[in-house]
Structure formats: structure tokens, C-alpha cells
């Protein structure tokens, strides 16, 4: 019995009469004793299958948690598949990982893909068993228990192989630094998301918390980026959680609700925010609104969380202090993680070094707080030779009312421009006024001097987003190349000239000094 399952099982025995999982806004509940019994029954069935690895593709809910824990209990390799993956991405992941069988709550999806589905219930769940028609043997790194998929630069999702030891280390580290008493957690991210799986479910179970796992459409969430703000706010208000894990877009929903008079439940003690760069002003806005929001940072290759702000140790603008189970160094501006790194990628011949070069740019301050300033490969170099991280400006754009998502462009160009996903009903004049206000707060070389609306939302389905919500810039540049070129057809002389003059003055001052 591995250490993580041993700890969760011990917690379940100690809290057998307390509610472990809840769904349907609390109308369906499962106590820890029932959860333990269900997991042990299903783990016995999974052991008998001799399916290694086994994929799991289903909506959020108790069945997802039960299946995941059953695999954990018997060291069964599991491949959680995001439900918003395209069919081609699902097929790639199944082949890439050498999946033998799949557990799913959506057999029709797999039937349309040509797979044979067995109409059987497993240990009282509503999951169906799928037999992969073509079994492939894939050599996985020794000790692989979980393969989490994140989209790579080529568009095919990339399988990150993790062992129980890595997952337990990060779960324990979060537990050690988070002193808030969390008795009710609401899972709003897909459970296939490693962050929610580890920091939400595993952490909550270790503490004997009540974990609400409603289906995503009950929260007003659909696909990878669809949000019904009103339904989401009503769900948070109705369930009254102590903790949430959010991406920036969902934080914007909370702030939008507060601006219109919505009040967060008094129970809310800790809201972790990650999954993309967050403007410090947005964090400050949340704090002023009374939302206990704390930014963190993590990667799948490090089993999720690397650093975290907490109520006791918090520095807005940073992504928190590095967790005690790992070390971070900055090498030529790049964040490098030492310790607790992944076992390898599916299909990778040689195991990785015991360090991981993140590709993220950042720095550590004297107190050990980590700051992420952008992506190494995403740095724009303007025609004036200015190096600019587009994520920095995009984080500032994200706090403007009416802008749901953006991508800043300007590589080799004289100034920055932006593709904007604008909320329905928001006029061009409103966006122009908001940008004018923002530009007054930015240095001249970072001002957004031209912009256009995107024809459709950025999403995983159209290839514009990775599975964890990051912009796939090369693809977006290809899709919108005509619109981007049109933004630069006419020069914008005045602000750029001022920027060039500032640059010359700065260079002259450096020469004098």
C-alpha cells in the first residue's frame, strides 16, 4: 500500500461518519465510510482487469473520485482524459499511453469513435467499460501511476508521467504550508486537471473535508472556456465552500459579480488562483472586495504546485514562496525546478534529469518569494529592440471590463497590438476608452495602439488554447495573420516616436554613467 493511499485511507477511517463527497448541491452525499468501501470494491475489480494503463474520461462527480482513488489504492496506472479534448486528441492520448481499457460516463462519444463499449456497472458506479480495439505496448517510465495530458506545441497532447511519490510529496507540502481550516471545498476545475485533483481532492481527503464535486454544467461551465457567470455565482453562493481553486477567468467572474452587488459567502477562507499570469492589480482588487485570493504557480511536470501564497505568508504580485519539498533557481532569467520532477513523457527514450527547465521567466526576491514575468519563448522583440513579455500586458488587459481574453502581438513590429475576445454587448467605444485608460499606466513601448475583435473565442477545439488554458500563439498567429497585418498597415507615429525618444534618452544616460 503506497503512502498517499495509506494516509487517505487512515483519514477515511477516522472520519467514517462525516460527509466525504457531495453532488447535486448537497442533495447527494457519500460519507467517508461509504467512500472507502466503494473504493475498495472497485479497486478489486480493477486489479482483476489487468488493464495497464487504464483511462478515465468522465464529468466531475463522485464516480470520477472513486475511480481515481481505486486506481491509487492498487498502484494502477491511470490516464485522466479531459472531457473537452477533441476526438483526435483523445485517440492520440489513448495510443500514446498504450491504454488497454477506458472507464467513461459517455459511451456514445467512444462509440462514434469506433470503440466497443461494455454495458456494465463497476462497483455501483455509473461508469461504462471500454475495450480498446487495438492494444499497443508502450514502455512507460518505471513507477508511473498517473499520466496527465497537456497540449504540446504541435497540438497533440503530451503525456506527463508521474509516480505516487511525486504526487504525495506535493500534497503533503501544500498541507504543511496551508494553515487555514478547510472543512468544505468546491471543485470547479475539471477533476482531470492535476491542480484540482491534488490540491483540491487529495488535500481535502487528507484533512477529512467535505468535497463538493458537482457536474460542470451545474456550475455554468462548459467545454474548456464556456462560463455562465450568473449560474456560477449562484453555485458558489449556494454551496458555501471554504475553499476554491480558480483560473483567472473565473476570478474575473467573481469580481464582476461583486461589482454588481453579489456577495461572496462568509464561509470562503481560501481561494487559490493559478493557471496563468495574474495582474497584481487584479489580486489587489479581489482583496479590496473581501475575497481571500492567493496566487500560486505550478506545472504538470512538477506534479502541480511549486509555490503558493497563503494568508500567513503573502506577497501580492508574487506567486508565493517555494514549497518545502523542492528548490528553485534562476538560470539566465529562467525558472529551473530541482527535486520532485516528473518521471518522463510518454514515448520518451531517456528519463529527464532531476531538474526541470520550465521555460518561464522570473526571479526570487530576498525573502524567497517567486515572481513569474513571462514565457521565455513568448518574449516579443519589437522593431525598436525592446524585449516585452506579452503575458504581462495580457494580465493587465484581463482586468478591463468587457475583455474576456486577449493575445498581444508585436514581434518585429514598431508597437504592440492585441486580439481581443470581447463580451457580448460591449461597444468598440467602451473598449477604446478602457484601452486609453490602461495605456496611460503602461510604458510607451507596451501600449496597445491597435486592436481588433476575434471572430470566435479562443478554445481547445479550434486549436487556440492548450488543455490547461494557455494561448497557443503560433496557431493564433496563423489563424489571424490577415487581421494582424491589417493592424500595422498604417503607422502610429506619435506614441512610437515618443517611445523611441525615451529609448534614446535612456541609452544616452547609460553611456554617461
What strand line-up does the widest sheet have?
Answer: 4-3-5-7-6
Q: Tell me, briefly, the overall form.
A: globular
The CATH class of the largest domain turns out to be Alpha Beta
Please identify which CATH superfamily of the largest domain we are dealing with.
Answer: ANL, N-terminal domain
Secondary-structure class: alpha/beta
Structural account:
With 513 residues, this protein is an alpha/beta fold. The chain has two domains: 3-372, ANL, N-terminal domain (Rossmann fold); 380-512, ANL, C-terminal domain (GMP Synthetase, Chain A, domain 3), CATH 3.30.300.30. The protein is 34% helix and 24% strand. The strands form eight sheets. The chain has a five-stranded mixed sheet. Strands 14-15-16-17-18 form a five-stranded mixed sheet, with helices on both faces. It has a four-stranded mixed sheet with strand order 2-1-11-10. Helix 1 (3-14) runs antiparallel to helix 2 (32-49), helix 2 packs across helix 3 (62-73) and helix 6 (164-177) crosses helix 7. The N and C termini lie far apart (65 Å). The model is unreliable at 494-513 (pLDDT under 50).
Amino acid at each position: 500500500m503506497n503512502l498517499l493511499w495509506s494516509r487517505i485511507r487512515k483519514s477515511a477511517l477516522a472520519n467514517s461518519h462525516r460527509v466525504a463527497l457531495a453532488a447535486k448541491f448537497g442533495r447527494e452525499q457519500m460519507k467517508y465510510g461509504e467512500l472507502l468501501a466503494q473504493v475498495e470494491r472497485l479497486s478489486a475489480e480493477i486489479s482483476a482487469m489487468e488493464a495497464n494503463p487504464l483511462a478515465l474520461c468522465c464529468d466531475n462527480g463522485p464516480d470520477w473520485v472513486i475511480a481515481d482513488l481505486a486506481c491509487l489504492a492498487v498502484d494502477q496506472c491511470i490516464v485522466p482524459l479531459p472531457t473537452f479534448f477533441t476526438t483526435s486528441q483523445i485517440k492520440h492520448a489513448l495510443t500514446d499511453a498504450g491504454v488497454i481499457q477506458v472507464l467513461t460516463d459517455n459511451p456514445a462519444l467512444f462509440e462514434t469513435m469506433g470503440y466497443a463499449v461494455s454495458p456494465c456497472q463497476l462497483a455501483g458506479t455509473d461508469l461504462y467499460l471500454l475495450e480498446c480495439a487495438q492494444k499497443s505496448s508502450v514502455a512507460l517510465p518505471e513507477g508511473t501511476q498517473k499520466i496527465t495530458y497537456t497540449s504540446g506545441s504541435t497540438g497533440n497532447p503530451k503525456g506527463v508521467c508521474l509516480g505516487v511519490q511525486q504526487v504525495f510529496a506535493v500534497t503533503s507540502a501544500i498541507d504543511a504550508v496551508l494553515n487555514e481550516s478547510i472543512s468544505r471545498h468546491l471543485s470547479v476545475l475539471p477533476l482531470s486537471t492535476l491542480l484540482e485533483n491534488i490540491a483540491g481532492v487529495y488535500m481535502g481527503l487528507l484533512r477529512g473535508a467535505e468535497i463538493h464535486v458537482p457536474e460542470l454544467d451545474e456550475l455554468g461551465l462548459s467545454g474548456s472556456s464556456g462560463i455562465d457567470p450568473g449560474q456560477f455565482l449562484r453555485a458558489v453562493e449556494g454551496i458555501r465552500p471554504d475553499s476554491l481553486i480558480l483560473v483567472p477567468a473565473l476570478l474575473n467572474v467573481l469580481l464582476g459579480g461583486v461589482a454588481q452587488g453579489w456577495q461572496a459567502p462568509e464561509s470562503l477562507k481560501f481561494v487559490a488562483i493559478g493557471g496563468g499570469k495574474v495582474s497584481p492589480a487584479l489580486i489587489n482588487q479581489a482583496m479590496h472586495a473581501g475575497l481571500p485570493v492567493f496566487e500560486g504557480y505550478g506545472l504538470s511536470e512538477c506534479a502541480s504546485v511549486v509555490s503558493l501564497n497563503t494568508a500567513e505568508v503573502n506577497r501580492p504580485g508574487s506567486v508565493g514562496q517555494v514549497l518545502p519539498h523542492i528548490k528553485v533557481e534562476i538560470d539566465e532569467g529562467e525558472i529551473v525546478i530541482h527535486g520532485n520532477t516528473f518521471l518522463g513523457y510518454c514515448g520518451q527514450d531517456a528519463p529527464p534529469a532531476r531538474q526541470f527547465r520550465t521555460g518561464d521567466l522570473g526571479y526570487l526576491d530576498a525573502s524567497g518569494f517567486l515572481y513569474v514575468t513571462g514565457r521565455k519563448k513568448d518574449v516579443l522583440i519589437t522593431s525598436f529592440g525592446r524585449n516585452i513579455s506579452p503575458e504581462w500586458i495580457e494580465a493587465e488587459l484581463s482586468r478591463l471590463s468587457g475583455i474576456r481574453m486577449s493575445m498581444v502581438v508585436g514581434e518585429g513590429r514598431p508597437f504592440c497590438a492585441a486580439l481581443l475576445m470581447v463580451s457580448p454587448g460591449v461597444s468598440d467605444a467602451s473598449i477604446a476608452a478602457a484601452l486609453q485608460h490602461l495605456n496611460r499606466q503602461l510604458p510607451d513601448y507596451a501600449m496597445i495602439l491597435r486592436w481588433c475583435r476575434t471572430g470566435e473565442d479562443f478554445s481547445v477545439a479550434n486549436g487556440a488554447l492548450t488543455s490547461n488554458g494557455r494561448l497557443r500563439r503560433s496557431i493564433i498567429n496563423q489563424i489571424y495573420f490577415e487581421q494582424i497585418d491589417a493592424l500595422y498597415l498604417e503607422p502610429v507615429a506619435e506614441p512610437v516616436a515618443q517611445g523611441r525618444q525615451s529609448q534614446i534618452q535612456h541609452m544616452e544616460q547609460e553611456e554617461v554613467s
